[in-house]
Every structure is written in structure tokens, then in C-alpha cells.
Design goal:
- The protein is an alpha/beta fold.
- It contains 17 helices and 18 strands.
- The strands form four sheets. It has a seven-stranded mixed beta sheet, sandwiched between helices. Strands 10-12-11-13-14-17-18 form a seven-stranded mixed beta sheet, sandwiched between helices.
- Strand 11, helix 9 and strand 12 form a beta-alpha-beta unit.
- Helix 1 packs across helix 8, helix 4 packs parallel to helix 6 and helix 12 runs parallel beside helix 14.
- The longest helix has 21 residues.
- The termini are far apart.
Length: 541
């Protein structure tokens, strides 16, 4: 900061980077009612180290509190998300950082995007003032309040650009942002560094407690600041923040660059491969085919390693990109569930024409689609990972109406325990498509009693997307099919990219071979033709 009697204008900050650190990006988010001035020395320090740095000015900030009162948290988040995506597009790896509310936004970005790491200073996730519980009502009776009076920074010549009044409508938006960020913490797969002031009158200790509880080992460093208040980036401990965060970025830049690929193709890059997967039969003997389906808002990227494991076993594999997926959530909003089913059914018919036995497999919604194929076609067996059949959200029955007024909701992606993994799903969930999925689930449950092929389910003990209600519906519906369930103790929802992936891959291959061996006739003369089997399966339908 320059010493002057006139505070500098709270404008955005951007630096392209130079030297060996130029390909590492750092997007920094300022706090509530503040501006880039509050993190400007931090940004300037990192820029001097050669990093590519961006600090956007969030909507409603840097002007007056009346403008802030007319903004909302989605606009604040979107502004920072756009800055992050622009920076990530021109760097090899990109970190996010933030102060106070900016820390919450940075963590929410990390929950929805494959960031290289997160560094936050006094991140806000909760409030001291209990009146915030009724802020949705209070805002109608009181327009503004005085900002929290805290101990002024000890460092000289500091100016953070904060407003002199705090609009309560914006505080209500802040409360909603904190809730979204807290709910998304389990989806953060990147390493997180936290700086926490001992004397912070703005953010209570419960915020750090929530981070410790929900991040677990992903919270790699907590630095106590003994000589600073809330806006620590302008206070006595600022140099420590700057130097230690720089070391954090350098250390995890090296980790990202040196990361080795998974033996079955687990992808750590920020550009997932959404293309379909196909492999031909290999070897002699029974010709086995496997049709796989990815999940809702996802793509073949999340199942590519699983598909490759089947191909390595010699099976013919087909994994289509379902209509509306792998492009944009707006495109998905224009599709119907019958199109998803038709794409998978076409893949089944392709393999059925050239294989002796065809199995179906799927993840999440893809599991429901696989079950639909098993209910309408003579499949040899079914393999499912965290299959979805029920949407527990109480808004689901109203989705047909909500889609008329609400286009999308926050993403349900990247529920993965393993650090650094990204399933490449959409950043938003279209409500119209969720309505289609709900209709497909109900129709699939109705068809479950028609399934006679054996079903193998891999189920994560901790799944933040699909609850056990779906498993209960599956057990009740499979009245004529044997069901085997294997628990996954070290994975979340997208288990095909998680710590138990190898158990899924090997277990799936073993299951298929066991089923094939069990159905192999002892006397070759007693074996029927493929046509006979098809006719028998059709008659049973």
C-alpha cells in the first residue's frame, strides 16, 4: 500500500505472471462489504514472486452499501468463479484464496472445480450474532446496521475499503452463502491452508471447527496469527501470511506437476475426457459384452477406468455419452429421460448382436438406467455402484413446477474422498433434467420385479449424494433376482474414481466370470443357440 491521505480506488487486480511461476495461477477473493484493497498487498507480494494473480471486484462492492443491498451471493460467487476459470484456462494449475467471506467463496469454488489448493485467511462460515437466525425477517424492519467494531490493524497506512454501513439484505445473502459453502466442504479434494487470528471479532471459532470436522486430512495446515485482528492481510502478521502461503502454493504446484497417472487412467487434469468408450472382444471362449452408463450431469470420464478394466479382461465394452451430457447443463435441461435410456439400449443391442452374454453396469443414475435395460432385455447380470432410485430432496415432487421459475441449482458433483480427483460433471444442475430423472426413477422401480439376472452392488458407507433409501427400494423391488451387496469403506459417491476403485474393478470382473462359469452348460450338446436364449428371455418378459 502506498502512503497517501487519499485511499486508493478499490479496483480489481490482475497480473499475468513472470518467470518459472508464471504458469501457476492464484485467484484471490476479498471479503464482505470490502474490496480488493483488503487483499491487495497479498496479491502484490505473490505477483512479485512471479505468480499469475487475479483479484476481482465482487458485484455490489467498492461502490456503496445501497448497491450491495441489491446484489446476491450467487452474483458474488459467479464473479469470482469467472475470474478463476479465466485464470485456470491460461495456467497449468490454479489455486484459490480468500479473506473472510472470500474464504467461503474460495472453498465453494474448490468444491465445484479441480483447484490445485486453497489458502484462506479467517474464513467465514458462521456468525457471532445470534440475530442472524431471523435475518430473513429482520431485514424487512431494519435496512442497515453498523459494521462490527474490531480492533484496528496495527500496521500503518492500511485501508480495506469497507462500507460504513452493512445492509441486512446482504447479510441474509451472506448467511445463505455460508450454508452453501459449509455443505460443499465434503466435496473439496484439494489441500487447504488456513490462517486464523487469535483476536478475531468478526468470525467465531466455530468456522474453524467446521473446517476441521468436514475437511479432515485435506486441512493440511492451520497457522495461528497472534498479533492480528480480522483483516489480517493488512495487519502485523501479513508478512507471515504472504510468505507461508507462497511456500504452500509452490509446494503443491510441485505435487500437481509430479502427480503420476493411475494405472487404469484416473485423470488429475482440469480437462476431463467426455467422449464415449468402446473396446472390441479379445481372446477365445465365451464372448462377453459389458454396457456401462455414467451418472446424472456426469460423463464417461468418471467411469473410464472401470471401462478399461473390463476391456483389459477381454470383454467387449460400450459406454455411450448420454444425450445432454458432456456439453453444458443448459443442453441437459432440454433432454428427456427416454433419450438417455435409448442411448444405453442402443449400446446394448450393438453388443447383443455380437456377444454370447451381455452385462450392464452403471454409477448412480446410470445404475437406474442399467436396471431398466435388465428389466427389458435378457441381460446376463447387473453391476451397480451407488445406484440411485430415489431423490430424497423434499423439493423433488415439485420439480415439475419449480423448473418453470428456477432454471438450475448448485452442482451435486465430485463427492470423492480421494484428493485431487474430478469427475468432470456440470457446475450447475438443471431443474428440468432433475424432474426427468425423478420420473425415470419412479418408472424403473415399477419394473424391478421383472429382473431375473443376478445383481452385484458396490455401496459406499458414506455417500453424500444417494441415500440408503435407494438401496431399500432396490431390495424391495428385486423379488426375482439375487442381490449381492459389497460395502466400500473408503470412498464417497463417485467410488469409481475413489480409494476403493480397484476393489470395484476386480470385483466386477470376478462377478462376471462367476456368472458366466455358472451358466456354462456341462454338456455341449445341451447348450442352446444365442437365438434360443433370446427367445426365452423375450418370453419371460
Amino acid at each position: 500500500m502506498t502512503e497517501s491521505s487519499i485511499p486508493p480506488r478499490p479496483a480489481a487486480f490482475s497480473y499475468p505472471g513472470h518467470g518459472p511461476n508464471a504458469r501457476t495461477g492464484i485467484a484471490i477473493c476479498h471479503g464482505f462489504t470490502g474490496s480488493p484493497l483488503s487483499v491487495l498487498p497479498w496479491a502484490e507480494y505473490l505477483a512479485a514472486q512471479g505468480f499469475a494473480v487475479t483479484v476481482p471486484l465482487l458485484p455490489g462492492h467498492g461502490t456503496d452499501w445501497k448497491q450491495l443491498a441489491r446484489s446476491n451471493w450467487h452474483g458474488w460467487y459467479a464473479a469470482f468463479e469467472n475470474a478463476y476459470l479465466e485464470l485456470a484456462a491460461r495456467t497449468d494449475r490454479c489455486f484459490v484464496a480468500g479473506l473472510s467471506m472470500g474464504g467461503a467463496i474460495a472453498l465453494l469454488i474448490a468444491a465445484r472445480h479441480p483447484v490445485a489448493g486453497v489458502s484462506v485467511v479467517n474464513p467465514g462460515l458462521s456468525f457471532y450474532d445470534r440475530r442472524v437466525r431471523v435475518i430473513g425477517v429482520l431485514k424487512y424492519f431494519q435496512r442497515t446496521t453498523m459494521p462490527i467494531q474490531e480492533e484496528k490493524p496495527t500496521a500503518a497506512s492500511t485501508e480495506d475499503g469497507d462500507y460504513s454501513r452493512t445492509p441486512l439484505t446482504a447479510v441474509h445473502e451472506l448467511k445463505k452463502l455460508f450454508g452453501a459453502a459449509t455443505r460443499g466442504l465434503h466435496q473439496v479434494n484439494a489441500p487447504v491452508q488456513v490462517f486464523k487470528s487469535r483476536t478475531d471479532a468478526v468470525v467465531p471459532p466455530t468456522s474453524l471447527a467446521a473446517l476441521r470436522h468436514r475437511l479432515g486430512p485435506r486441512l493440511v495446515e492451520v497457522v495461528d496469527l497472534h498479533n492480528s485482528s480480522h483483516v489480517a492481510t493488512l495487519d502485523v502478521d501479513a508478512p507471515e501470511i504472504f510468505t507461508r502461503s507462497s511456500k504452500f502454493f509452490l509446494a503443491h504446484s510441485a505435487d500437481t506437476a509430479d502427480a503420476a497417472p493411475h494405472p487404469h487412467g484416473d485423470v488429475m487434469a482440469s480437462l476431463p475426457d467426455h467422449s464415449p468408450f468402446s473396446s472390441a472382444l479379445q481372446g477365445d471362449g465365451v464372448r462377453i459384452g459389458v454396457v456401462l452408463s455414467h451418472g446424472f450431469t456426469g460423463s464417461p470420464h468418471g467411469l473410464r477406468a472401470w471401462a478399461q478394466a473390463f476391456a483389459d479382461a477381454g470383454f467387449a465394452v460400450r459406454m455411450p455419452l448420454l444425450p445432454g451430457h458432456g456439453t453444458s447443463w443448459q443442453e441437459l435441461a432440454r433432454t428427456r429421460w427416454q433419450q438417455w435410456h435409448a442411448a444405453l439400449d442402443e449400446a446394448y443391442l450393438d453388443l447383443d448382436s455380437q456377444c454370447d452374454q451381455v452385462f450392464v453396469a452403471g454409477l448412480s443414475m446410470g445404475g437406474a438406467l442399467a436396471l431398466r435395460i435388465a428389466a427389458t432385455r435378457p441381460v446376463a447380470g447387473v453391476v451397480l455402484v451407488n445406484p440411485a432410485l430415489v431423490i430424497d430432496d423434499p423439493r423433488a415432487p415439485l420439480a415439475g413446477i419449480l423448473k418453470l421459475v428456477l432454471k438450475s441449482t448448485p452442482a451435486i458433483a465430485n463427492d470423492i474422498l480421494k484428493p485431487g480427483m474430478d469427475e468432470g460433471a456440470y457446475p450447475r444442475t438443471p431443474v428440468a433434467a432433475a424432474h426427468e430423472m425423478n420420473k425415470m426413477f419412479k418408472d424403473t422401480i415399477r419394473l424391478l420385479p421383472r429382473i431375473t439376472a443376478p445383481v452385484r452392488v458396490f455401496r459406499s458407507t458414506v455417500d453424500h449424494v444417494v441415500s440408503d433409501t435407494s438401496i431399500v427400494a432396490l431390495r424391495r423391488g428385486l423379488t426375482h433376482a439375487p442381490l449381492t451387496l459389497t460395502s466400500l469403506e473408503n470412498s464417497y459417491h463417485v467410488a469409481t474414481l475413489d480409494n476403493d476403485a480397484q476393489e470395484i474393478f476386480q470385483g466386477s470382473v470376478d462377478f462376471i466370470r462367476t456368472v458366466v462359469d455358472a451358466e456354462a452348460p456341462a454338456d455341449p450338446a445341451s447348450s442352446g443357440t444365442r437365438s434360443d436364449l433370446l427367445q426365452k428371455g423375450t418370453a419371460n418378459d
